[in-house]
Specification:
There is one protein chain. By secondary structure, the chain is mainly alpha-helical. It is 68% helix and 0% strand. The protein has five domains: 71 residues, no CATH class; 49 residues; 133 residues, no CATH class; 55 residues, no CATH class; 114 residues, no CATH class. Helix 6 crosses helix 7, helix 13 crosses helix 17 and helix 25 crosses helix 26.
Amino acid sequence: MVACRHLCLSNIIKGTATSAAAVELNTDEQSQKPKTPTVEPKSSSKYGSWTPEMDKLLGQLRSENRTWEYISIALGRPVSACSDRYYITVDPVLKTWTPAMFLKLDQMVDDGVKWPSIAAALNQRVITCQHQWRTLGKGRFRVKGFLTASQFMHWGQHEIESFWTAWLEFGKMNWVALAKHMGTRSEEECRESFRSLIVHTLKDAPGWAKLEAFNYATETSRKARSRMLVMAKYISPTINASKQDKSEWTAEEHTALLEAVERYGLFSDWAVIREQVKPNLDDDEVEAEYYRLNGVTIKTDPNRQLERPVQVVIKQHDGWTEAEIQRLNTILMKYSSLPIWVREAAKHGVEPSDDDYDMLFKKSKRSSIGLDSDKAAGPKLSEPRRRKKQPELPWSTIRISRLKRLVYQQQQQERATGHPINWSWVADHIGPGIDANMCITMWQNMPEYSRLQYGPAKYWSDEENDLLQQGIAAHGKSWTLIHRNFLKHRSMDSVRRKVTNLLLKRADFAASQRSIALDLKVSYPDLDVDAFVRNAIERDQDCSLAERLGDLMQKYAESNGRERDSTKKQKTARKT
């Protein structure tokens, strides 16, 4: 293998020498001809462009810890060209760039920071930072699915002002009402352009504020839709009972329908006709009723009836709560330069505080951009409240082990899906005081970090879960005894981590289900909240297992407590 590699290397060197000789020969022949003025391109054509095969060989040689001189001879390129190509294209570290790092790069370049300082702040090389800036959008957002205002916002300034005026007037996410108030955009256009409108409204705000607002709108829409779907599952048995009453047409409604069609036309927007005639139905049902009056029958999908109530609500309102809308308004009042939001911020006394800007480029679940909505209506603070800086926690042995395990999981996912390692996710799962850059630095400082390999995660089988229950029933929370007597093939940390994760998941799941039940109880006063939560936990396999483990630990603690009490009584009796 080594001999073959040296043979290939010698052939490359010979080929390079031959081509160099040919170039010199052509130069000598042309030196006698009259020279004409020419403009040489900046990019050298002597070596040609880099091919995917050359990039692959470059990465392979570098992973084998070959010197740059060796790589230069193997590829027939100068040392500087090989080094630059590796650090701007082939280096695996390029895949570790997170959206937060891109935003930090954008902000520092806009602020006029020198490239060596930028590279030191990002823990990257200068040439890598320059390449990321010059070739990946020149300051535009580089977040997958993120719409920049300059590329995708085709609304006029008057339309944007009209939209936000209607937004503040109605105080809720009703696309039909917003579109009707504007008069120039349909409800579908308002709904699809909503997040792009938010970004455009924050066009003069810092990049991190735009990203936080965009992510907040995306996450809130997902949560709202999930709430509506859960509610649809709960109310589906009552739909058939009330469907007859809601879909019955009176003579007055038929007359109003015919007059509305005559006024707006047969091929107009049926949403306007429905709002005036029968708002509790959707557009297709109103249109079908009109054709039925004229002797035309339209076949409908029977399965669509079960989805209609929740789909109509999601389409028209998106299911946002007043608190969620107020929180978005607070963000826009803090960072938007649009006149309407500037006036609204002055009206409520809202402005960004020093704490908001201290959060710049710091990943935190409790971001100050999402403070309680009460601040939007509260008085203006004379002095912003500063939070005390928490001392950074050192990298303990447990955290380093956790970092290795989480990075390996991300590597497995990267090979399966092609998505790069999410260092922010890794930092969130290690513990407080750790951010993405700290994780990257620690990982790169490990000896031969790129070659570290760990075994795949061992999923718990049903037999292991049964042994775990037996161990807790016998030893309670004594993880060492459970590991020794029941789960020898599992480590003590694995047993403890399994139980802890199950209990945390059950607590979060129970809290979310209780919140849903309390929302439903407003419409259904007879709903038993505790029974709703218990049924939801029983349907979830992990949560039901966590429930059983919790009961076993409680029983063990009670029985152990009784034994201790009896032992104390016996000792007291002996002394007396």
